[in-house]
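Hey, I'm writing a tutorial for new members on how sequence and structure tokens pair up, and I'd like a real worked example in the thread rather than a made-up one. If someone can provide the structure for the chain below, I'll link this post from the tutorial.
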Amino acid sequence: MNKENILESSRRENKNRDLAEMEVTAQAGNIAGRVGAAVCVVLTLIFRIFTKTYFLSPWVVYFSILTTHTLVKYARLKRKTDLILAILYLAMCLTFFAFFILRLVEVKE
């Protein structure tokens, strides 16, 4: 195969998307996920210090984002590890959501 055939094959395979851009986007997503987790931790700690209760709503949002991200990966790549992670993240999301609802009920009473 000559260079032009290889490039054309690569373009078809990647649907004319830039591989460097795809890699940067993936790295940005990973960094954004870590920053999101750090922000949730900081908000929870600050809220705990000032109110003596836990701030749970950011965790519901964070784990719903992780669940969606991992489910999309599973749908595209069909890796069982992604499905297991998605189920774990969904369980965490639902757990934090349940605690969030319980807290709302406590506050209302």
